From TrEMBL:
Residues 157-262 form the Fe2OG dioxygenase domain. Belongs to the iron/ascorbate-dependent oxidoreductase family. It comes from Beauveria bassiana (strain ARSEF 2860) (White muscardine disease fungus). The keyword Oxidoreductase applies. Coiled coil: none annotated. GO terms for molecular function: metal ion binding; oxidoreductase activity. The keyword Plastid does not apply. InterPro entries: Oxoglu/Fe-dep_dioxygenase_dom, Pro_4_hyd_alph_FE2OG_OXY. This is Oxidoreductase, 2OG-Fe(II) oxygenase family protein. Keywords: Iron, Metal-binding, Oxidoreductase.
């Protein structure tokens, strides 16, 4: 067996640079509500400052019943948040009464189990709202943070936020245990949750990825002098998240599915172009290439999540390939769509663009995951195969059973869907050997 080579200093630097980027999975913010007092008393003060704060008007929700009682005409109802009048308080109770129990997806089916999820829902065909995440700059922020576009027109991307559900988690005991969102299509890369200004306590949203956790606490502050706010959080769809128990009040949220689509200007009229040469990973990758870490020996280094494994393997190919196991899972639906690299997320997108900016050929490949005993059998077969080739014996093909290909590894999600599922992939960068680079320089 070949000895395991040690990582070179530049590979160690690259490994550390990857580890520093592991927090790229969620973002959030808050938007204050423009009430009559803030409009009269604070607008003038804000106008004199260089930093203007985005404000939203009070949010109105209108809805009707799909099946009105006694076959009559559907009654249109409305509630305005934050609540300032008794009629809106009554309307919020009416909205809660008109919602239905929320289900969740389990193995492609909708399941109602209030020990796992206790919440109410209303589908988009039954309500409309004055809230607009585009005009308030939320979608632009999500685009910059979670789906940045680059100068290459092939990966110039935009976010299409589509309203999916209205949910109410009421106290006591409203909650949703840890789950991963069910992808609605291969183009979906994330979710946006907007918490409207309805008084409640508890119900924190916890988002987790690769051992990291971010908590969004949208409870109503005890200091009544604080202005009401709209809170929001966006995160990648393969991130596990959980709604903690609501102790009192009503946690009212709007959920948007986030899709990657071509071109930023098509949606918002603004261009959010990032220069990949200014990404933190770019300089680390540039040093990696200039130092020729493969030393012309054709080494293949495995990058596990956002790390480079110390267990490097030797191959006989000319040149070398650096393999980066993507940090995120991606939705796919067989061969109907090819969303990658357009839907690459966070650090995965940074790695892809940094290599491309340096002229390195990159491609995406699926990952096959095997049990240890199968992996050992394949490794033994590989050594045995090489021995047979040396004796010039005829080769026998080895077929891997399809059950070892990664499929939908997530059990629980929002409402079930058979349209797409999650899988894993790797980014492969073809690094030239020092010999080929030297010959290209002298040519």
């Amino acid at each position: 067996m070949s000895s395991r080579p040690a990582l070179t200093p530049v590979l160690v630097d690259f490994k550390n640079a990857l580890a520093e980027q592991k927090h790229f999975y969620a973002c959030g913010g808050r938007i204050s509500i423009a009430t009559p007092t803030t409009v009269d008393g604070e607008a003038e003060a804000r106008s004199s400052t260089s930093l203007r704060t985005t404000q939203s008007k009070p949010v109105t929700i209108r809805w009707d019943l799909s099946n009105p009682p006694h076959g009559g005409l559907a009654e249109c109802k409305r509630v305005t948040l934050p609540i300032t009048q008794q009629r809106d308080r009554d309307a919020l109770d009416s909205l809660r009464d008109d919602c239905k129990p929320a289900t969740f997806g389990l193995n492609g089916k909708d399941v109602l189990d209030e020990t796992y999820r206790k919440a109410l829902k209303m589908d988009t065909e039954l309500f409309c709202t004055t809230f607009d995440p585009y005009s308030l700059g939320i979608v632009d922020t999500v685009t910059q943070m979670l789906l940045p576009s680059f100068e290459d027109p092939q990966t110039h991307r935009a976010v299409d936020a589509r309203l999916y559900k209205l949910n109410i988690y009421s106290g006591p005991s409203g909650m949703f245990k840890a789950h991963v969102d069910t992808p609605r299509s291969a183009a979906q890369f994330g979710s946006l949750v907007v918490c409207l200004p309805a008084e409640h306590h508890g119900g924190q949203l916890k988002v987790r990825h690769k051992g990291e956790e971010t908590t969004f606490d949208w409870s109503t502050p005890s200091d009544e002098s604080k202005l009401p706010h709209i809170e929001w959080a966006a995160f990648y769809s393969d991130c596990e998240h959980e709604v903690m128990e609501v102790s009192s009040g009503h946690r009212l949220t709007l959920t948007y599915n986030l899709y990657a689509v071509p071109g930023t200007r098509h949606l918002t009229g603004r261009s959010s172009v990032l220069d990949p040469t200014r990404l933190p990973l770019h300089s680390a990758i540039e040093r990696l290439i200039s130092d020729d870490p493969l030393c012309g020996k054709g080494l293949v280094f495995e990058a596990l999540s956002y790390q480079i494994s110390d267990q490097s393997t030797l191959t006989l190919n000319a040149g070398g390939t650096l393999g980066f196991w993507c940090s995120h899972a991606y939705a796919y639906n067989d061969t109907r769509e090819a969303p990658l690299p357009e839907t690459l997320k966070g650090i995965d997108a940074s790695v892809w663009e940094s290599f491309r900016a340096l002229g390195i050929e990159v491609k995406i490949a699926p990952i096959i995951r095997m049990e240890d005993d199968v992996r050992n059998s394949i490794a033994y077969f590989h050594e045995w195969e090489k021995a047979r080739e040396r004796k010039r014996e005829p080769r026998k093909r080895c077929r891997l059973p399809s059950k070892f290909i990664v499929g939908n590894k997530f059990g629980y999600g929002n409402e079930g869907s058979a349209g797409a599922m999650y899988s894993h992939c790797a980014i492969l960068a073809s690094l030239p050997s020092k010999t080929s680079k030297d010959s290209a320089t002298t040519a």
